[in-house]
Structures are given as structure tokens and as C-alpha cells.
Design a protein that fits this description.
de novo design (two linked rop proteins), mainly alpha, two-stranded antiparallel sheet, 153 residues, 4% strand
Length: 153
């Protein structure tokens, strides 16, 4: 059974955070002329990944959480495109690119797994060792406001 007290415990968030750190490190080495172009875009898109995972977690509703994670996945893809630009412009070597791309791909895979988990929970309830508990029961057990339990989706 997967239970998290904070979004910081979610593996997809941890990996996305590491990607964000790597993008920040890389951006520090970019030329001054790229400050408001490539640097800004890389930093914003990588920050958007972690921000969307965190915001989705705070929604306390599986469908909404999954939607925010899909936005995070889009930002992850945007970050990859900015890395492609950096490679094309000669700002990083093929080895550096491969390392950064590998981190993005690993994050993508784990994030996709988390999205699939959220979708299953929205459809079938939260899995437990002894069966399935619906989201309203989890909310009551964890003292999360069960206000969303009355929603139809």
C-alpha cells in the first residue's frame, strides 16, 4: 500500500527535484546572453515539474492529482526540448546531454507510473494489503478533510 504524508515522499517528486537541481547547475554555466532566453526557460520548465506534482498532491482528489501530474509530464517534455536546444547551440556536450536526458527519462517513467496509480485509485479505490479502501475512507482515517467525498468524479 502506498501512503505518503507529504509530496516530498513521492519518488516522482524526488526525481523531478533532482532534475531541477541539475538544470539549475547547468544553467549557471550558460552565457550571459542566454539569461532571459534558454536559462530562464530551462529553470521555469524544470520548476514547473515539481510545482505541479506538489500542487496535485495538495488537491486530495486522485483525478485532480493525476491531471496536475500530466501537466508536470508536459513540463518535463518541455525541459527536454530546451536541453535539445542547448545541445544544438553547443552549450553542452553529447555526454552531458545523455546524462541529463537519462535523468529526465527516469523521472518520466516513474511519473507515468504514479499517474497510472492515481488513475487506478480514482477508479477502484486505494489498494491496501487486505483489499480496497475508497478515497473517502482514507480521508477519514488520515484526518484529511473528506469534503471531496461528495464529488461525483
Amino acid at each position: 500500500m502506498a501512503t505518503w504524508n507529504t509530496f516530498e515522499e513521492i519518488e516522482a517528486y524526488r526525481l523531478a527535484r533532482e532534475c531541477r537541481r541539475e538544470m539549475s547547475r547547468f544553467c549557471k554555466g550558460l552565457s550571459k546572453e542566454e539569461t532571459y532566453r534558454l536559462r530562464d526557460q530551462l529553470i521555469r520548465s524544470s520548476r514547473s515539474v515539481t510545482a505541479n506534482i506538489a500542487e496535485g498532491f495538495g488537491r486530495h482528489h486522485h483525478q485532480e492529482n493525476a491531471q496536475f501530474c500530466r501537466h508536470a509530464r508536459g513540463s518535463l517534455t518541455e525541459t527536454l526540448d530546451h536541453l535539445n536546444c542547448a545541445l544544438d547551440e553547443g552549450y553542452l556536450t553529447s555526454d552531458e546531454y545523455d546524462k541529463l536526458r537519462g535523468k529526465l527519462e527516469q523521472t518520466w517513467k516513474v511519473l507515468n507510473g504514479y499517474i497510472a496509480y492515481l488513475q487506478r485509485c480514482a477508479k477502484d479505490g486505494v489498494p491496501t494489503r487486505s483489499g480496497v479502501v475508497d478515497a473517502c475512507q482514507v480521508a477519514k482515517l488520515s484526518e484529511v478533510s473528506p469534503a471531496f467525498c461528495n464529488s461525483t468524479t
